[in-house]
Amino acid sequence: MSLKFKKHLFLFVTIILLSPIIGYSQSKNGKLEINEVAKDFYVYTTYGDPGNGELFPANGMYLVTNDGVILIDTPWDTTQFQPLLDSIKIKHNKSVSICIATHFHEDRTAGLHYYRTQGIKTFTTRKTDSLSILRNKPRAEFLLVSDTTFHLGQYSFETFYPGQGHSPDNIVIWFNNERILYGGCFIKSCDSDGPGNLSDANIPEWIESTKRVITKYNHPNIIIPGHQSYDKKSALKHTLNILNRFQKK
């Protein structure tokens, strides 16, 4: 067997062995999808059952920095905690350094305990932690007592609590230089025609909180809602319209 043939055979076998892992990040198979939305910014989507027996997409995001990866929210699908880390490692040759959950519901916090055991620094607000204790949800290692600015590598971002909305504790995350707003479930996708899960929502407060976000972070380049599509800059205004219509019913 020639040396050249051996090299080609080794490459072929390597691709075959890695393809199931790499496939997690690219294929729309109801498990894990990863898509780049800006340089170093990626939205990942996993699926869970909201209670009607059907799978529904949940968006999280990660940012690749020189000093590690920032993960925002955890997979809803508990089988995807490690595949997400594996996909990030394979795609970027970097590990997740910190993880921030934007409110206490399981489509945001399900993986906090697992990621903490992997040596990742996990964060929520103190309000989220109180609700996680009350509802027996996974908890973060570190608690934010107020709006906080983070710096990692070449990037910085801030957390902002606008007030009650989808949940009593929901925060949004703003990347000022890139003008990217991660809203989680506080912001509704333009694909959505209703306010969604209202089990912990406060519609009147949500309306006022949305106005605060619109005032504070005007003209974002990209808005990432917690569910469904994230390709429209009008998601905040769409959220406000949905809430106003719902309140008038």
Fold and architecture overview:
- With 249 residues, the protein is of the alpha/beta class.
- The protein has a domain of 157 residues: Ribonuclease Z/Hydroxyacylglutathione hydrolase-like (Metallo-beta-lactamase, Chain A, 4-Layer Sandwich).
- Helices cover 34% and strands 27% of the residues.
- The chain is built from seven helices and twelve strands.
- The strands form two sheets. The chain has a seven-stranded mixed β-sheet.
- Strand 8 and strand 9 form a beta hairpin.
- Helix 6 packs antiparallel against helix 7.
- The termini are far apart.
- The N terminus is likely disordered.
Question: What secondary-structure arrangement, pairings included, does this model have?
Answer:
Elements: H1 3-26, E1 32-38, E2 41-48, E3 56-65, E4 68-72, H2 81-92, E5 96-100, H3 106-109, H4 112-117, E6 121-125, H5 126-135, E7 142-144, E8 149-152, E9 155-160, E10 172-175, E11 180-184, H6 203-216, E12 222-225, H7 235-248
Parallel strand pairs: 4-5, 5-6, 6-7, 11-12
Antiparallel strand pairs: 1-2, 2-3, 3-4, 8-9, 9-10, 10-11
Name the descriptors.
249 residues; alpha/beta; Metallo-beta-lactamase, Chain A; seven-stranded mixed sheet; five-stranded mixed sheet; 7 helices; 12 strands; globular; disordered N terminus
Structural class: alpha/beta
| Discrete helix count | 7
CATH architecture identity of the domain at 26-182 = 4-Layer Sandwich
> What is the overall silhouette?
globular
Please report the distance between the alpha carbons of the first and last residues: 76 Å
Question: How much helicity do the residues have?
Answer: 25-40%
CATH homologous superfamily (4th level) name of the domain at 26-182: Ribonuclease Z/Hydroxyacylglutathione hydrolase-like
User: Taking Cα atoms only, what radius of gyration do you get, to the nearest Å?
Assistant: 19 Å
Report strand order across the widest sheet.
Answer: 1-2-3-4-5-6-7
Remind me, CATH topology of the domain at 26-182? Metallo-beta-lactamase, Chain A
Under CATH at level 1, the class of the domain at 26-182 stands as: Alpha Beta
- In quaternary terms, these chains amount to single chain
Kindly estimate the percentage of residues that lie in beta strands according to DSSP. Answer: 25-35%
User: How many runs of DSSP E, i.e. beta strands?
Assistant: 12
